[in-house]
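Example for tutorial group B:
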């Protein structure tokens, strides 16, 4: 049974969710997530659901490459507890709760309580990962015992582990390179570490949609500009105006050129010319995960145009051209480049009869740039 991720709600939960729900370049990981308000609650929830192991992650911890991170954990040598060990030469032995992994059946809910504990004295490794307070491991000295009242995180877990004569291991440097933490609420370094993905998302072009299109029955529509949805909506008799808000500057440019220049015939050729003129390397059709061979085949102009026009014809009505030309003459389109969530929160949307969000509410870029509070405000406002 695969292990879940237990995430404690808190500041920058959105960044933590972004790193767990999505891989480095925004593909869904399918990872099971359990949200909790305190660690004991999360621990009990995981055990009650039959899990034997779990990764615990505090809000503000950002995993930069989930695929590499999960592979590392599955191969990581340990005896039931991997954590950030903190043990200053003149201080207490504790754990940093930003991230740890445990075998659930080796611990009890009471290990998270403040309590009096007795356990073998810890023996630390001779070397540290950095500075003088991060030993590589702690193991028990069974000839000596210490008793004290726990007051800091992890001391009950440490006691349980050492009482069972098991070593506690620290996260190694490779693990630390795969994640960051928002210390003092600073997040710029996390976004900077994700800049390759962010730049890709902000310059992505969707020629077609990989989702079911929503037929409009409204007068005023607010939506992203990806693929054919806005085009299909614009030719509907009821529609008078569409406001496009999209994070991709490239997508906005494509929408504007279609609206200003395209006659409504041969969409595939228009898209091909736009891609060539802008020397685009990153564009998507109706499948986000085309194989390298499929992508290579579609680098041929004729195959690209044929594929796009075939998909277009399956979606649009036979009289599309006349309806498109009438729409361009009689309807209005406005565009804005930005976060749809923030746009809604910062603008008067009462006159919009319909808001189509596409996949932005389950999109890595949105999680990276939108707090959970703003996300929830957005859902409340459009409901």
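The residue assignment follows.
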């Amino acid at each position: 049974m695969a292990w879940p991720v237990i995430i404690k709600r808190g500041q920058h939960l959105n960044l933590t969710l972004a790193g767990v729900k999505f891989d480095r370049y925004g593909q869904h990981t399918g990872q099971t997530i359990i949200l909790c308000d305190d660690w004991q609650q999360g621990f009990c929830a995981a055990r009650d659901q039959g899990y034997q192991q779990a990764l615990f992650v505090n809000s503000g911890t950002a995993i930069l490459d989930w695929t590499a991170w999960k592979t590392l954990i599955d191969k990581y040598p340990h005896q039931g507890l991997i954590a950030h060990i903190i043990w200053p030469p003149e201080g207490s032995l504790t754990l940093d709760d930003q991230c740890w992994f445990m075998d659930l059946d080796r611990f009890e809910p009471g290990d998270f309580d403040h309590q009096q504990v007795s356990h073998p004295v810890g023996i630390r490794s001779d070397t540290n990962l950095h500075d003088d307070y991060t030993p590589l491991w702690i193991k028990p000295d069974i000839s000596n015992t210490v008793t004290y009242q726990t007051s800091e995180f992890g001391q009950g877990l440490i006691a349980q582990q050492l009482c069972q004569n098991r070593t506690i291991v620290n996260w190694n440097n490779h693990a630390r390179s795969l994640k960051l933490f928002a210390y003092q609420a600073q997040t710029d370094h996390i976004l900077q570490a994700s800049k390759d993905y962010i730049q890709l998302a902000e310059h992505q072009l969707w020629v077609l949609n990989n989702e079911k299109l929503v037929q409009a029955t409204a007068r005023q529509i607010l939506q992203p500009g990806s693929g054919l949805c806005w085009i299909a909506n614009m030719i509907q008799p009821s529609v008078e105006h569409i406001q496009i808000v999209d994070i991709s500057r490239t997508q906005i440019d494509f929408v504007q050129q279609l609206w200003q220049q395209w006659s409504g015939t041969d969409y595939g050729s228009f898209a091909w010319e736009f891609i060539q003129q802008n020397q685009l390397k990153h564009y998507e059709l109706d499948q986000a995960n085309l194989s390298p061979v499929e992508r290579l085949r579609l680098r041929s102009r004729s195959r690209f145009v044929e594929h796009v026009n075939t998909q277009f014809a399956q979606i649009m009505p036979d009289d599309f051209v006349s309806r498109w030309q009438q729409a361009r003459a009689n309807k209005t389109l406005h565009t804005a480049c930005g976060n749809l969530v923030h746009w809604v929160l910062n603008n008067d949307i009462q006159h919009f009869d319909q808001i189509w969000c596409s996949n932005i509410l389950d999109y890595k870029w949105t999680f990276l740039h939108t707090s959970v509070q703003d996300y929830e405000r957005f859902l409340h406002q459009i409901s």
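The chain has two domains: 5-193, 197-382. Compare this with the pattern of hydrophobic and polar residues in the output above.
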